Amino acid sequence: MTPDDDRIAWLTTIDERAAELGVSCREQLDLEQREPWVKHWSARYGRGAHNMRAWLALGRRAAERDRLCVSGAPSMVRAVRALVARLPEAVAWHLVETTAIACVMPGVGLTGPWPQPPRNPTTRIDITFTEPGLVAHEIAHSWHRDPRMWSGLTTAQIEAVDDAVATLVDV
Predict the structure, then answer these.
(1) Which of the residue ranges 36-40, 53-57, 60-64 would you say has the lowest mean pLDDT?
(2) Which residues contact 67 (CB under 8 A, 6 or more apart)?
(3) pLDDT band at 48 (very low <50, low <70, confident <90, very high)
């Protein structure tokens, strides 16, 4: 965090970060030594702290990456899986447990079965690209976004949101 970054400025000490995750300072220090990325404010942005607490509560469970619900063009699926293989365990676990990913190139249609869905399906990612930075960006949305913001919406309402986003980017 830079000195002028005040988004989560009040969480700058290990004591404060430990309290937010509900762990001891010793546990927080161990976590930060194993997973240095958790010190950065972005790890706790949005639902990040909630997702980290869920992962910690399950004993830092390893992500079953082979269960990742990803479907689409084989080359794109391989690119997504290669990126997920490099993700921190907590983020990969969250992705596998909550997110379905569709990878279809523009102008291509694919028909076939979905892999087994996530245990707690709350999020979908639709991508038409394989650049690791862009894929990681979309995965970060899955880590940060609160699925409750979509709860109660009908399919038509979700489609209206998708239409609005597509209009903004002229798709």
Answers:
(1) 36-40
(2) 96, 115, 116, 118
(3) very high
pLDDT band at 1 (very low <50, low <70, confident <90, very high): very low
Chain CA centroid to CA 143, Å: 3
Please state, as a whole number, how many other Cβ atoms lie within 10 Å of the Cβ of residue 43: 24
The CB density around residue 24, as the number of other CB atoms within 10 Å, is 12
Place of tokens 């546990």: 27
Give residue 170's region: left, alpha or beta (phi > 0; psi -120 to 50): left
pTM over 0.85: no
Counting other chains too, the contacts that 126-131 makes at CB distance below 8 Å and 24 or more residues apart are: 126/101, 126/102, 127/76, 127/80, 127/101, 127/102, 127/103, 128/103, 128/104, 130/75, 130/76, 130/79, 130/80, 130/103
Q: Is 103 helix (H, G, I), strand (E, B) or coil?
A: strand
Termini Cα distance of the chain: 35
